[in-house]
Design a protein that fits this description.
CATH class of the largest domain: Mainly Beta
Largest sheet: 8 strands, mixed
Strand order of the largest sheet: 7-9-12-15-18-21-23-24
Number of strands: 24
Shape: globular
Distance between the termini: 67 Å
Mean pLDDT: 79
Number of helices: 6
CATH topology of the largest domain: UDP N-Acetylglucosamine Acyltransferase, domain 1
Radius of gyration: 24 Å
Number of domains: 3
Low-confidence stretches: 1-45, 67-75
Length: 317
């Protein structure tokens, strides 16, 4: 019996149960060796399974006998099983095999970050078939065509990350992300441990490198890349599919439309609204609201409304 009236039996079995719960919490906190993703994992310890089953049976028996829980009064039927199920998806995202979309310099950079600063394991790379160029490996791992990804990496075995690109003013990354979702893939995120993030509103498939500050009440959408050393002010909302190069400063309560690209050392003053698909050139400062597809050069001295599309292939091809 696990839930005896106070006595040595209750203390001993309670201690054993506490040990098993610590195993579960260790897994939940992401410090286990691998994730519990089917076919690629360390299975849930049998001691945990037995303890959960034993706790459920004992709870029911004691309830029928009118006995009081003396050791674990908060455990209800199925509680540990439900706890595991609740966090299983979270654990998968913390420690999973991932495939990176990209086979260029940026993908190589992200690979180093992931290898040194996360529990993910990179198992391959993917690019569009037209970009394979006869290559079958990248960084010593399989490089496969995006169009045939399922033939090599099943949707339930890996997570995707990327594309690590701002090509075509972020349209390319948006399109491949949405395509991957439609095909049944889940996406990972990489957030460097040397960041200062004070908001829990961070989307999926985000890459946030070291030195970024995201202040309280700010939001970062899905599929965004924040390279090193940016500042996102309080109550600012960054839309999906945006890219911030290094040392970008965004003031508080700003609104950044989807697919917007910020070059290095650019900035936005507070309470400013920027439309979708804008390009903010390196070193530029946005001092007023911008419409969709705007292109800004040099400290706000020249703004071309609706011109981002014309420059996208040249600047961000």
């Amino acid at each position: 019996m696990i839930c005896c009236v106070a006595g040595s039996c209750g203390r001993q079995t309670g201690m054993a149960m506490e040990s098993d719960i610590q195993i579960a919490l260790t897994l939940i906190d992401g410090t286990a060796t691998r994730s519990p993703r089917e076919g690629n994992s360390t299975p849930l310890p049998q001691s945990f399974v037995r303890t959960a089953s034993r706790a459920n049976r004992s709870y029911g028996q004691n309830q029928r006998r009118g006995m009081r829980h003396s050791t674990w009064p908060s455990i209800a039927p199925g509680a540990l099983n439900r706890l595991w199920q609740k966090y299983q998806r979270r654990i998968n995202r913390i420690m999973s095999d991932i495939v990176i979309f990209g086979a260029g310099q940026l993908a190589s950079v992200i690979s180093v970050y992931i290898a040194r600063e996360s529990s993910h394991r990179i198992v391959g790379y993917t690019v569009d078939d037209s970009y394979l160029g006869g290559s079958s490996t990248f960084n010593g791992l399989p490089l496969v065509a995006w169009e045939r990804l399922e033939e090599h990496f099943a949707t339930d075995r890996v997570l995707l990350l990327g594309p690590v690109s701002y090509r075509d003013a972020n349209r390319f990354r948006r399109d491949r992300y949405l395509d991957g979702k439609a095909r049944g893939y889940d996406f990972a995120s990489f957030i460097h441990p040397a960041t200062h993030i004070y908001s829990d509103r961070i989307g999926e498939n985000c890459i946030i490198l070291e030195g970024n500050v995201v202040q309280p009440f700010a939001e970062v959408g899905n599929n965004c890349i924040l390279w090193s050393g940016n500042h996102v002010g309080h109550h600012t909302i960054i839309g999906n599919h945006c890219f911030l190069a290094s040392q970008v400063g965004i003031g508080g309560n700003a609104r950044i439309g989807e697919r917007t690209f910020f070059g290095g050392q650019s900035g936005v003053i507070d309470n400013t609204s920027i439309g979708e698909g804008c390009i903010i050139g390196a070193g530029s400062t946005v001092l007023n609201d911008l419409g969709d597809e705007s292109f800004v050069m040099f400290r706000g001295t020249r703004t071309l409304e609706g011109a981002a599309g014309r420059f996208a292939s040249t600047l961000l091809g």
